[in-house]
Design goal:
single chain, about 325 residues, alpha/beta, Rossmann fold, four-stranded antiparallel sheet, about 30% helix, binds adenosine-5'-diphosphate, binds magnesium ion
Amino acid sequence: MKNNNDLLSIENLHTFYELRRWGFIKTGNVRAVDGVNLQVKKGEAISVVGESGCGKSTLAKTVLGLVEPTDGKIVFDGKNISHMGKEEMKWYRAKVGYVQQDPYGALPPFMTVKKILEEPMTINGIHDPREQTRHIHEGLTELKMTPVEQFLNKFPHMLSGGQQQRVVIARATIMNPKLIVADEPVSMLDASVRVEILELLRELQEEHELAVIYITHDLSTVSYFSERIVVMYGGKIIEEALVDDLLKNPLHPYTKALLEAISDPDGANVKTFKKVPGGEPPNLLNPPPGCRFHPRCEFRIEGLCEKEEPEDFFPEENHRVECWLYKE
Ligand SMILES: Nc1ncnc2c1ncn2[C@@H]1O[C@H](COP(=O)(O)OP(=O)(O)O)[C@@H](O)[C@H]1O
Ligand SMILES: [Mg+2]
């Protein structure tokens, strides 16, 4: 839903992975992101949910400029990121922080916490050691890694998973970015520290008017980032709404199935995706024609859903769904 104060605007984005045999014979495309439109306002936090393999990480990497889009446009703060030169790309990398799923893999093993946090500043022209130290102290204090001195000379392997992820977040936010892309930031951490890390992210978001794209397969955590939620299926966003509207009134049969698959509706902590009944997610190398969900959908309209890709419908204000059931 486009708006003038969008910080990020993703338009008709496609990211395919080309498969080749012997390195040169093209054998097909994995349509990991296949026509995504998404807008994020300044300071807004949104959640992207969907089963494994639906294209969430590819969407994240394309937004971060780590993977080339096949088609479509990404506009950040009024600038088209695919037309950026080297200097502008450096600026962009500083303005958009990345928090990966695996904090240990994200941190260089032979660098101390201090060195890890100095690096983005050095790259972006902050060379004054006093200024660097000040930023590092502020960053680690905000992430509740105190006393700071106790952590500065530690190597990643000397930290717990939760502490490693705090360092990743500190590194992602040290240049005062406008957007954080957090791709399953707590799914590899112990359950006991997940909430804490999500709360820290939420605090940073509010404190600094940061926009956050929070990617997860775990519905129980979206309420920590509760403005808006988008549901991905087979490389597409099939439903988008405010979190409360979506949880109270899911429209797409897939979203409904996801919510019904939640094993215990009373237990706030067990809202994890169970396998949606009716088969497997689509193979994105050869997705089904029409609506990608139709082979699993108990409400499919014969003669339509298996042939035509659904359009956007808005059955409620600010509630978008790609499903033929909502055609007037
Ligand atoms: N580098 C790659 N080359 C080929 N296919 C890939 C690559 N990375 C991901 N894929 C495929 O793209 C699809 C989407 O993957 P991904 O974006 O990782 O989804 P998610 O993060 O939702 O699990 C999957 O079918 C996956 O196998
Ligand atoms: Mg992923």
